[in-house]
Amino acid sequence: MSNMIIEDSKLGYRKHVLEEFEFENGHVLQDVEVEYTTRGTPRYDEEGNIINAIIYCHRFNGNCLSIEDLNQLLGPRSMLADFNFFYISITSLGFPESCSPSTTKLKFDFPKYSIKDCVNFKRKFLTEVFNINNILGILGVGTGGYEAFTWGCEYPDEMEFLIIGSSSFKTNGYRYIMSKAIGNLIESSDAYLDTVYSDQLSKLMFSINALIYTQYFSKRAFQNFSREDLDMLMDTFIEEGSSEDIYDFKYRNDATLNYDVEDKLSNIKAKTLIVSTSEEIYYSPEFDTYPLKDKIENLEIYIFDAQDFVYNYDYSLFVNLFREFLEEFKE
Fold first, then answer.
1. CB burial class (10 A; 0-12, 13-18, 19+) of residue 120?
2. pLDDT digits (tens, 9 = 90+) for 260-311
3. Domain boundary among 219, 253, 287
4. What is the model's pTM?
5. Same domain, yes or no, for 166 and 180?
């Protein structure tokens, strides 16, 4: 029998344990932990089904509490509070707060998983905990957008809208080279297959985070920062990622390396909003946003100048855009 555990009432996250989870490749894990948090109040139809649920899918380096990054949009005192949505944020499969190589202690014996596995992980959780089979919408950022795209392609009748920011529909070009190089770097270390997690692996993660930092800001932002700014920001970024488990990272990197839903995009039925920036290094309008015009039927695209956002992380810039898009879905 699966159970619910309240982990931290101050931070607001909880954990649920799935009796089992089956991966696409047939592997099955027992007693699978899922970390999650919620915001807002659920509304129910006459049959007792929640009808205002929006699923938040976090970035590559996030977790369920990353939804707090959007407090200007989603919080109880936000400018969209009157829309009365029920947000469910779930730490994805493969992340240490949920089921992952590190938390299961399986390390390199953890089952290989795909982005579709990440989606099915959340779908199974939603059915068990909230009895939800259909959701109002999905909000995905970065690799969370990979989950949103995949969900919309594989299960097009399960949501009414998708909002996807700074993301793409496949791993190719620069992203593929970067992910492949990082994977090769990890596999080249003899310490990766050791039974004990060594300092060598921690130092390797340090170097990998330094490499990832090269994708963190827009091209113009990098040019405008002084060397002192760059050093300070880079040190902060690396320090924040220093505790990352290399096995969790490697499996997550492998899942994104093999991600590609381009041939399935026409399956999407949901109203879709794609938000991107004009100068981002990792995801570009030219290759990751504009090609969607011919692939998704009910599509809106918004490209913004990220300069103010990069320096201030001011999500209020998106309020009018979100309000207009979500107007038809509010109570």
1. buried
2. 999 999 999 999 999 988 878 889 899 999 999 999 999 999 998 765 555 4
3. 253
4. 0.92
5. no
Which CA distances in Å does 48 have to 3, 157, 329? Answer: 21, 20, 19
Residue 48 DSSP SS3: coil
Q: Which of 217, 235, 253 is the last residue of a domain?
A: 253
Our count of domains for the chain comes to: 2
Do 155 and 221 lie in one domain? The reply is no
61: three-class secondary structure by DSSP: coil
Residue with tokens 């504009």: 290
Taking 3-state DSSP, the helix, strand and coil percentages for the chain, each rounded to the nearest 5, stand at: 45, 20, 35
pLDDT digits (tens, 9 = 90+) for 224-250: 888 998 899 888 888 877 788 999 999
**Which 8-state DSSP code applies to residue 260?**
B
Neighbours of 8 (CB within 10 A): 11
Print the domain residue range for 216. 175-253
